[in-house]
Amino acid sequence: xxxxxxxxxxxxxxxSKLLMFDAFWRGCLVKAVSILxxxxxxxxxxxxxxxxxxxxxxxxxxxxxxxxxxxxxxMELPLFLFHKDLANIQSLKNxxxxxxxxxxxxxxxxxxxxIYSKEASTKDLILSLSxxxxxxxxFFRLGIGEKNLEEIIxxxxxxxxxxxxxxxxxxxxxxxGRSQIQVGDFIESIFKTDAxxxxxxxxxxxxxxxIQRVVDWLNRMKEEIKTKNVLLSANNFIFxxxxxxxxxxxxxxxxxxxxxxxxxxIKDNGLNLEIVGHEREIGAIKESLLSNSGNNVLVVGEPxxxxxxxxxxxxxxxxxxxxxxxxxxxxxxxxDIDSLLAGVSSPGEITERVMSVFSExxxxxxxIIYIENFQNMLSSGDAGRSDLSQILLQVLESxxxxxxxxxxxxxxxxxxVPNTAFNQRITRVDIAEPTESEMLEILENVVYQxxxxxxxxxxxxxxxxxxxxxxxxxxxxPNPEKSxxxxxxxxxxxxxxxxxxxxxxxxxxxxxxEKFNVPAGxxxxxxxxxxxxxxxxxxxxxxGQDQAISAVANALRRARAGVVNSKKPIGxxxxxxxxxxxxxxxxxxxxxxxxxxxxxxxxxxxxxxQNRDDxxxxxxxxxxxxxxxxxxTTAIRENPxxxxxxxxxxxxxxxxxxxxxxxxxxxxxxxxxxxxVSFSNCxxxxxxxxxxxxxxxxxxxxxxxxxxxxxxxxxLQDKGIYRPEFLNRFSTVAVFSPxxxxxxxxxxxxxxxxxxxxxFANKGISxxxxxxxxxxxxxxxxxPQMGARPMARVIQxxxxxxxxxxxxxxxxxxxxxxAITPSEIQP
Length: 827
What we know:
Helix content: 55-70%
Oligomer: single chain
Structural class: alpha/beta
């Protein structure tokens, strides 16, 4: 397209004439007309007052004259608006078809006419564009403030000519299906092609897709404003109610009292309620209502996923007559369940009232009933609630009435799945979460309300960060609710607590970090140092086991550096080795070193889950309509950023081990109530004593680490202890070696330091120990079969018991110091 020769000459074009007319209108003519209107306005008021009071009969004029004078005052606005619409008319003359100025819209022509009328630089062009309203919107939403923009223009060093920019902008507009070139097309083209502005993108951590989205955002906003301003639009009149609307479905006393037209919800959200996405779901609703097998729909999805929005989108199409089916222009009435069931004292009265409502809807013939939270009408066995299932079954069987209901996943499994009759009479439509593009557009639509409420401004980068962090850290809630709530609450928090008027992307990260106790932003200096020295920190608690500790530290560094973007857990490790060699202590050390404390570790003793029925205690269940939470799923929902430790995993039943296949591979499992639970922000560590003898024998014979690990994995598979697919799901399988006597002595030192701190904190007594004492304790506590566990018993028997006797005997008191010698611990 760019190979074709184009000219850009404002002179003689329709746009230039419109600009002259605009300048004239805004100049002397508008002043003259304004003065004239002011005079006639004052005169009209005086004449109108005179006609009403008769105080000045000599000036009394015909009422028609008064009305004409008043109407004259309203002529200025239509005349002013008319000349702007002329800019949409394209010149069809062949001799001007290649003059791109003919394709400029009025705002762009006004901004650039001086540039293309004379020899001007690209810097002049950019400076002129920056003064337009469209450019102000684009640059602000990109996070480029007015001062920043002035500095950028001042230091502009590009050599891209204004002629080339116009041609590229024309290509951009043509790619989007538009014949007119707008300011946004110019700005988008500059960022696409000019190396100088591409560097600016890198500085502001933006990319060209961000520019395109902001320009599309601007165009969509302008189109919405234009549509709303067309007062005579047929679609706008649809929502005004109309004459005799209440008679449209006959005399329906009960129905009218206990329901309201869903069109009012659309009207309350503005004449042009935007429904982003849900095309598939809306199509499925329409198809189900038109099918021969049934005319009832149940929209199923997690709370906040957009069930109601999908129904509103369908209702909007029905109201506007865009379904191209017999459904067009039907009335969709939402039943107010609380009002319907309020004030009644007996089941018979409830039944009579409900039957009256549905009977009137059936008689009307052109009514679709919408029931939000459909499960509230199916509550058999729930205390204090009425079971209307039998009534609903009769209604669902009626061909003269259609029902659309919404229901969350857990309630669907609790109330609908066990009831075969309902399943046969109602079609399930599942609501999917919006895609990334749809979610960004949804946030763009709601950002104005948040800005108005919080009195702050929100650039596009903040919107993008909201979606990114919501997807990464708020995994147990669906979009769009979680992203909308996150943006709303983060903006309110930042504006109220910090007094900021611009909410940046870093503010969203700070809010997520503080609210959910996760490291959401880029790693700061302190955290970076902690990550780089994580092995050294963990070795303060764990003796040896270099390979295992290195594997854990590397996984955490990869996750925080953003090297990979995966839904899998941050890291998943299987620690294999004899008892007492530091497998569990390694997990505790990681929780202390990075997560901030051992309490951030969630531990499960898998010996408690050896039977098949134990799986329900693990992930929850739905028994006879009652949702029972699971220990694992509840813990991870409450603490999504945690370290999960599964001790002695070889003792768990095979069905529970199968859960780990999906958990480790996809980062998600489905709990017993049908809800998804994410593990993407967890570190998962499983420990196992299986193959301990093989490890001890191999290490004793001097085999290297990799050989021992390979032989051990083969042994576990051959013996059927673990299946290959289970072992392969872990990011690292680490082998823990038996501790030597020298390492046991170091363990004794660690244990004594913990005891020393406890004694001082509890009793105010300072104790110390000589190195030879630790050597003696190590000999007593060394057991190649049991690792460090016997060492704990030796310290308890030789040190703690001795100290307890001295404290009780009054030999040690608060403020005393005591050095433990070899004689104190001898048998």
